[in-house]
Specification:
Blueprint lengths: L5 E5 L2 E6 L2 E9 L2 H10 L4 E6 H6 L5 H10 L3 E5 L5 H10 L3 E4 L1 H5 L1 H10 L2 E8 L2 E4 L4 E6 H8 L6 E6 L4
Parallel strand pairs: 1-4, 4-5, 5-6, 6-7, 7-10
Antiparallel strand pairs: 1-2, 2-3, 7-8, 8-9
C-alpha cells in the first residue's frame, strides 16, 4: 500500500470538499504548486492531483496550475478529473504527468479504459456513494456496484485502482 498526499484543484486553488460537494470547498492555498513543493520537502514521492472543475466539465480546467506543479517539483504525479479521451491522455503525458486516473469513463466505456491501459500508465478511479459508483464529479450515481467495477479492471493491466467512499470523504 502506498499513501499519497493529495491536492484537489478548484478554480486554480488547492481546496478540500466535504462529501464531494463543490459548494463546500475550503481553500488551502492560492498557489497549489507551493503545497506540492511542501509535500516533496516532507519526503513524499508521489502526489495525487484531482482537477475538480475538469471532473464536472468533462475536460481539463486547471491546466495552468497543473503545469506550475509539474514545473516546480520533482514528485511523481498522478492526475484525474475530466480525462475522457486519448488526446487528453497524450497531452498530460507530454506535460510530464506520470500516470492518469480514469474514473467516469471507466463506467461508461470500459473497453476504452482497457485499451488506454495497454498503451499508457492508467489508474482506474472508483468513487462510491453507498456502494454504487459515482460519476461526473460525484454529481451522478450509476447503477453499477463499486466492487463490480473493480473486478472489471482487476486483471486488465491498469497500474492501480483507487477507491473513494464519498460519504466518508
Amino acid at each position: 500500500m502506498e499513501i499519497l498526499p493529495a491536492i484537489d484543484l478548484k478554480d486554480g486553488k488547492a481546496v478540500r470538499l466535504t462529501k464531494g460537494l463543490m459548494d463546500t470547498a475550503k481553500i488551502y492555498s492560492d498557489e497549489p504548486w507551493q503545497v506540492a513543493k511542501k509535500f516533496e520537502e516532507l519526503g513524499s514521492e508521489w502526489l495525487h492531483l484531482v482537477d475538480l472543475n475538469g471532473a464536472f466539465k468533462g475536460s481539463p480546467a486547471n491546466l495552468e496550475q497543473i503545469k506550475k506543479i509539474r514545473e516546480n517539483c520533482n514528485l511523481k504525479l498522478e492526475l484525474g478529473g475530466g480525462i475522457r479521451d486519448e488526446e487528453t491522455i497524450k497531452m498530460y503525458l507530454e506535460l510530464g504527468i506520470d500516470r492518469l486516473i480514469l474514473g467516469s469513463i471507466a463506467v461508461k466505456d470500459a473497453q476504452f479504459v482497457k485499451n488506454m491501459a495497454a498503451k499508457y500508465p492508467i489508474v482506474v478511479g472508483i468513487d462510491a456513494i453507498d456502494g454504487m459508483v459515482a460519476v461526473e464529479g460525484w454529481a451522478e450515481t450509476s447503477d453499477m456496484k463499486a466492487t463490480d467495477l473493480a473486478r472489471e479492471f482487476a486483471a486488465c493491466g491498469v497500474e492501480a485502482i483507487i477507491c473513494t467512499d464519498v460519504g466518508r470523504d
